[in-house]
Amino acid sequence: MQRARSIALAGRVADGIILVEGAGPTYVDWALGHAGRPDPFHVVTFTMLSVDADRRQAYRPITEFVGALIAERRPAFTVLPFFDEIAGRVAEHGHESLVEMPADYWREIGAIGTFDDALAHVTSLERAGVESIAILPGPELDEARQLLTHVAALAQR
After folding, report:
1. H helices within 37-135, ranges in order?
2. How far apart are CA 94 and CA 89, in angstroms?
3. Domains plus CATH for the chain?
4. Which of 22, 42, 53, 62 has the fewest CB within 10 Å, making it most exposed?
5. Closest of 119, 131, 68, 54 to residue 96, by C-alpha
6. Is the bond leading into 102 cis (omega within 30 degrees of zero)?
7. Angstrom distance (rounded) from CA 100 to CA 59
8. Residue 88 has pLDDT above 90, yes or no
9. How far is CA 1 from the centre of its chain?
10. At what angle are helices 115-128 and 141-156 packed, to 10 degrees?
C-alpha cells in the first residue's frame, strides 16, 4: 500500500514517475491509475531484454533474476492477474520452472523472447503511457554486447 500512496503523491506533485524492471503495461496502467492520470505526466520505465530465436533460450538467462523479483513480491509483479500462478511455480519448483511460463506472461514482464516478443512488449508499454523506455540487456558484458543490435532495432522502429 505504501507504493500506491507514493505513486498517488507523485501524481499530485511531480512531472512524472520512473518505474523499475518488471514494470509491464499492467503495472504502468495500475501506477497511472493511482497517480490520477495527470496530464502531462512523463512515465519512464526500465525493461529487461533477453532475445533469441528460440524463446526458451531467451528465458533461461533471466529466470533467476525474475524469480527473485517474484519471491520479493515486487509490486510490478503482484498486480499481474497471473501472479499467484507464477509465485506458486517459483515456490514449488524454483526459478528454472519459469522457462515453461507462457510467452504472453514473459511479454508482460519484459522485452523477453523472440525479437517480435520484445517489440510487442515495447509497443504495449508505449500504448500504456510510457514515454521513455530504458532497455537493460543484462549483467553479462558479452551477452549484453550481442543484444545491442536488438536494442538499436527497437529504438529505430
Report:
1. 55-59, 63-71, 75-78, 83-93, 103-109, 115-128
2. 7
3. 2-156 (3.20.20.30)
4. 53
5. 68
6. no
7. 9
8. yes
9. 20
10. 60
* pLDDT for the residue 71: 96
Residue-level pLDDT at 11 = 72
pLDDT category of residue 2 using cuts at 50, 70 and 90: low
26-55: per-residue pLDDT in tens? 999 999 998 899 888 999 999 999 999 999
The C-alpha torsion from 147 through 152 and 153 to 154, rounded to 10°, is 90
Length of the chain: 157
Q: How many whole angstroms separate alpha carbon 91 and alpha carbon 131?
A: 35
Amino acid at position 110, single letter: G
